[in-house]
Amino acid sequence: MTKPAATAAVVVMLLALVGCGPRQPASSPTSPVSQTPPNEVSSLQIPAARIDYAMSKVDGLVNELMKDTGIPGMAVAIVRGGNTVYAKGFGIRDVSRGDGPDNRVDADTVFQLASVSKSVGATVVAHEVSANVVTWDTPVASKLPWFALNDTYVTGHVTIGDLYAHRSGLPDHAGDALEDLGYDRQQVLRRLRLLPLAPFRISYAYTNFGVTAAASAVAAAAGKSWEDLSDEVLYRPLGMASTSSRFADFLARPNHAVNHIRVGDKWVARFQRDPDAQTPAGGVSSSINDMARWLTMVLANGVYHGQRIASPEALLPAITPQVISAAARSPKARAGFYGYGFNVSVNAAGRTQYGHSGGFAMGAATNFAVLPSEDIGIIALTNAAPYGAPETLTAQFLDLLQYGQVREDWASLYRQQLAPLNDAQGSLVGKPPPVSPLPARPLGDYVGVYANDYWGPATVTEHDGRLQLSLGPKNQLFDLTHWDGDTFTFTLSTENAPPGTISTATFAGNTLNLEYFDADKLGTFTR
Questions:
Q1: Helices then strands, each counted (H, E), the chain
Q2: Could you report the per-residue pLDDT of 433-475, keeping only the tens digit for each?
Q3: Handedness of CA 107, 113, 118, 124 (dihedral sign)
Q4: Which has the least CB within 10 A, 243, 293, 421, 473?
């Protein structure tokens, strides 16, 4: 920018800030110049008593939410000014164990964090950046020589930050269905090279295994496993004694909350999600008391009670915008952004806000939200599938804090957005079978091993007059039911395929196309 243009820009900015009122006489007293940068100021001030008022409403908000949704349990913490000012549990840990005192949720009950793990993990990376082990701009392949994506340039240039910001070009949720089939972390990461890529650094697509690849590079640079590194540089220094990045540790905690899904109008404990393959992205478990310590550290720019965990310079990129994650759909709308493991936005009050949600379709939902200008943050953990309960609570609390009232029907808004995540998938869901289907060929014609570089082999066998499909390293079995002609169906129920999901299996000569596994056009297997 030229000097005249820069000067004009400054003038325009100052005019916008001070207005265009009449010039004051020279003798008029002048107001002291604020030392706060204009872009850190909200025009909507918060009265001092408002914070206590908002906190006084939390118990009632939680009880109302739990009554309306029926979710079994929730734990909530609020931190402000370097202290935990609220920490409380509600409900029960496991619906199958009654409502006795030994089954109650308290502030030390351990929950699975799901994708809030990304934010926690980003602070582990920030520690390593502070220690000069890596930078956010370190190429992943420089620490993991075997790592590759489906483009030579991207392989050599994609950084830790690119993957934590979901801007690598990998497809949405790349690798998740491989995990569901039983592939381990290394096996999934090595298959990412087979996926098609969107334009590098100008595309946003949320990827658990992209984050996992970045974290694996950081761990390799540190010479430790990610699980050990997280414990060494974050959990132990913060005194997070109930926090771990290992699923086995979660199960071993006597006071842990089990997963629940909704079946009809009831919540049932049917599944328990094992996220070890993608631990950096979704595998942390913790209590609300522990997470309050972590939030306090983040709000203090990397310091906890005088102990430096990460430098402000290393942490700042994580909690500030790095990519547009939700483009504005009208000139009046505000865009959404993503940092490195954190969602970032400017809210209706003009304040910067950051946080993250987490959800397991198998039965966990979490959310935290932070207003750094007010030095306050709230986190809510639940043991129920994601229908918007934790997001509703944090939004209601921030409304009360900033406006003195709840402005929106957040429960309905979040339910509308999140409920479809729990819906069954597949083009045939809800459709009746054809009245007069074409007959199948002799079943032996379909039997064989069908190869696929990404998914691995699909083995079709005949057993007691029916076809069975075997997939994945653990040979998961699926019964094939005839639908019409050479098309069969099978059902799935996994983290990414909610109960009731139906996939077609269509044979054509020596090929087999599996609808559920064809999202990225990689679902055709060849015999």
A1: 17, 22
A2: 999 999 999 999 999 999 999 999 999 999 999 999 999 999 9
A3: positive
A4: 473
